[in-house]
Amino acid sequence: MKGFRLRFRAALVAALGVSLSACFTMNHTFPPNTQFGRRPEGSVGVRSVGDEGMKNYLLSGLVPYTSFGTKDLAKDPGPGRRLADVEIETQFNWFDFVVSIVPGLYYGYYVWAPRHVGYEAVVVEDPSEVVAATR
Amino acid sequence: MRRRARLWAVALLLPTFGSGCYTVHHGYHGDKLLTNGPGLDRPTKVVRHFESHDRQFFWIHGGIPTGEPLNALELAAREAGPHPGVVNLKVKEGQNAADLFYTHVPCLLGIVCGTWSTWAEGDVVEYETPVAGRNVR
Questions:
Q1: DSSP reduced 3-state for B54
Q2: Which of A32, B83, B109, B123 has the fewest beta carbons closer than 10 A?
Q3: A91, closest residue in chain B (CA to CA)
Q4: Cβ–Cβ gap A24/B94 under 8 Å
């Protein structure tokens, strides 16, 4: 009975881990029609923008528990404008290391696992309309 | 006993110096148009949909990364091939089940080594009317 319980618990932990594992991904979401590579022809740069922040996870990254991520990082630049020349950086810096690993050998790694995420871009004024691709 | 404790302390402290090194930088400076929008400034046709994945292995909490740096935007541009660009682009990174397994089990909770992944997904497009001197190869 005791052996069964132990096996059941191990299976439960494994199942939970696998089912949650897809959560440890950061979706780098930006406002509509953001240009990551070359700027559209005829667009004019207005100003540089950028932001960075810490993204926190529970259970060694399985559960994100702050909404602050790349999803909320870049704001919509408004009508007739879009982001271009976007560069994204994810860093596991010394703070993240100290927080998640050193105490983690005892408890922390599975409690709090932060990462630092940032982006830089240029707001461009783009007179051209986007024509949706056909399939 | 004290010697072993000291060894553990050094083993734990060593990675702190290298840990700031593990940075994933997504950037692209080539001639492809990469956008999360549904299209480009002129009519385009979807050539194919793609989902690509790249994984990097590192030692000591990322202090010593190995191989090519991860870059989802370069990955997407490579997928575009001879075509002018990619639309509906989605970029993400992190650890999937395989990365978690490598990092936590054989790599001993990430202390010895680990892996990190990046994904790019989108539609490769071609202009419906090719422009002279561009996008024709």
A1: strand
A2: A32
A3: B23
A4: yes
